[in-house]
Design brief:
Chain A: It is found in: Mitochondrion outer membrane. Chain A: Pfam families: GST_C_6, Tom37. The complex is a heterodimer. Chain A is mainly alpha-helical. Helix content of chain A is about 60%, strand content about 5%. Chain A has ten helices and two strands. A two-stranded parallel sheet of chain A has the order 1-2. The relative contact order of chain A is 0.22. Chain B has one domain: Glutathione S-transferase Yfyf (Class Pi), Chain A, domain 2 (Up-down Bundle), CATH 1.20.1050. Chain B has helices at about 5-10, 30-45, 55-60, 80-85, 100-125, 125-140, 145-165, 170-190, 205-215, 225-230, 235-245, 255-260; strands at about 15-20, 50, 65-70, 75. Chain B has a four-stranded mixed β-sheet with strand order 2-1-3-4, with helices on one face. In chain B, a hairpin with a 2-residue loop joins β3 (about 65-70) and β4. Classes of the chains: A mainly alpha, B mainly alpha. The interface of A and B includes residues 65, 66, 125, 132 and 155 of A.
Chain lengths: ~290, ~270
Amino acid sequence: MAVPMELSCWGGDWGLPSLHPESLTVMAYAKFSGAPLTVNTINNSWRPPKGTKYNADYELSAKQGADTLAYIALLEEKLLPALLHTFWVEAENYCSVTKPWFASRIAFPLSLYLPGKMSREALNRILLTRGGPPHYSVTEVEAQIYRDAKECLNLLSKRLGTSQFFFGDTPTTLDAFVFGFLAPIYKVCFPRVQLQEHLKQLPNLCRFCDDILTCYFRLTVSGCSPSGQDTADANLQKLTQLVNKESNLIEKMDDNLRKSPQHPPRKLTTLKLAAGGEAGSPLNRLSP
Amino acid sequence: IHLLSTAAEPWPENASLYQQLKEEQILLSDNASSLAVQAFLQMCNLPIRVVCRANAEYMSPSGKLPFIHVGNQVVSELGPIVQFVKAKGHSLSDGLDEVQKAEMKAYMELVNNMLLTAELYLQWCDDVTVEEITHPRYGSPYPWPLNRILSYQKQWEVRRKMKAIGWAGKTLEQVLEDVDQCCQALSQRLGTQPYFFNKQPTELDALVFGHLFTILTTQLTTDELSEKVKNYSNLTAFCRRIEQQYFEGHDKDSSATVAARSAKRSLLR
């Protein structure tokens, strides 16, 4: 049966179990399908499941499976650049929120280096995939990616309509992905928030995020019957591999860390039961 | 693009589409993109002349191919071209509702995300293909050493991009798996319908046709890529249908018929 998997990811804040889109996607998927998943903060080592092969057997109809793939491509292509930009490239956001937040969760001296590296990688990715003529300056690229992201949000909103989830009444892989991307935009409080403001004008998407947070992340009982547990596990393993890609660097640094004195291990931050999960006072939590 | 002014002028007779040289130079991915635009314009019933130039890539306003020259406007890549054509009053997707339009856009991203990237990977990151096909073709109009320099420069550029999006670490097998997954999704979405949105073709059909037809009819070092597509009979039937309807019996110089004739492999076998 299912081997409980461990997920090593960034912790959470602002009412979210994690700030990292792919980590959120994995956690949401795990909740939806009832697969056991232990969530650790990044200090612990991560053991990848061996010999996994992606299983394309979705629990949905063939057409819905195809739609899932297409919408995920849309999210990665149109929404991800702006998400990366909001978190890692936009100077005010990065300096006042992202960098201190991530730095406070990494042991010294990595905290000096890693956020900067992630920021550079984000900018690199944006410029390489979306830069180039006819956009000759970074500001033009930025304008374009935000336009694309807003259009993507509009498309998602239209697709969701009035249903509770993207394919009816039970959540699926696509819901996990959309949640993973939308929740950080929705909940994290940045000084520069054009994407969040746009999202707030789409009430069905906000309701979608809130629903998942209340149903699946406040209670430990999952609401979905895991039909095809093996399928769900295989998909989950694939998703955890996606997160692993991001955590690769951290894994390598783990060895160095073990040799040097560490901060006391942080508690799991999965369940923030503060009412509404709103920002409260982020500055209090961001102690360097 | 100033949309208000473009709407005023009708589609001229001498509209041209620019791409690289067909026989010696053009690569898989550019051929696919060019064919997609040609298919789209044929579906809109807009006449277009294909012009082959060795330096087409440098003439393009965005550096990407193909681009069209209409009146005094130059527009490149399928997305902007679709919008440009829409401003002139022609559209294939007006009949779709909002949800269908969202779906169409999502599937177009899927094709770009997976098929196009896989084509780029194959022709610039797979060493065998690079040596035997890409390097000789890409710089072929230019004398040595310029041909090698341009070719290496482009390869470096593409590999940087692959690294940024996480494809550099993939093996060829993984890339082919992705292509298979994409084809499976497209096949499932198409089902038994003639086009993706049933009776009428849209820009999505043009895009899918451009890529699949090119993959099926281009001779590479290995057949694995085209085999992936051939596994799905409704996709090959789809390509043949569009080829017959929009490219045969038309202008003899149209790229698809010439490609079909001169390619070592044809769909009609």
